[in-house]
Amino acid sequence: MPVKIPDGLPARQILEQEGVLVIPQSRAFVQDIRPLRVAIVNLMPLKSVTETQLLRLLSGSPLQVSPTFLALSSRQSKNTPPEHLAKFYKSFAEVRQERFDCLIVTGAPVETLPFTEVAYWDKLRELLDWSLSHVYSSLHLCWGAQAALHHYYGIEKHLLPRKLSGIFAHMVAKERSALLQGFDRKFFAPHSRYTEVRREDILKVSPLCLLAESPTAGVYLAARRDGRQVFVTGHPEYDKLTLREEYERDVANRVPVSLPVHYFPGNNPRKMPVVSWRGHAHLLFTNWLNDVYQHAPFDLNELKPP
Fold it and tell me: In 3D, which of 119, 36, 134, 35 has the Cα closest to residue 71?
């Protein structure tokens, strides 16, 4: 939450230069408060698991959040009961005339496919275009980030020699960012993907800035300079055992994969992983929500494209 300070306090300028979220007392007195409306496009196979993971992170902020789950495809999910989707999800057509403070687009197990071969690619492109005028800020995870970077900025994804899976150390590349407020210079985050976007392609796009990266896992966090679009190439939402479950699934399916790196103590898959990323995952989501709360119009009908 922002710090409410007296008008004219000298500390305000210093704190703002450090990226600390402050609000003048005169504005606080007249500020309207309402729940943040968050649309979630859940493309992960185990939808109820991803729902829990995302809601856990969204609940870390004292702000009220009102989520709406969206389904892009009418095709029956192999891993989620149809009655669950019917009860808890809306179609894009049902919300087309609505406006939201936030949009989250999850990853999806389709990253080795060309974008045009993904069954719901055209529908996702339509939703991404719609979000420019109907959503204040969007956050894209893993394949969702790659898809959005390609759609908006023509950035290509590249196939890796092998699956990138594990917990990786990252370095903050731009300290004065609202998204990174309170971050340690070095922090950890999970990755689980077969493809990547490259830092040189991010740096070529002037509206984008690179916020955090790993010498091993590459780009982790990028965003529009105005904060209206956020791209996370990893999975900060992952639970303690998610990577283990994915590894065991791949082994059972005879997929040639290695142990997730820096995950099992002593690289022993019989040992319980130690969580090292949860604090920064919560901080990222809280910082994002706080930034939206401060800048999105109270009346979403006044929303303007970035």
Answer: 119
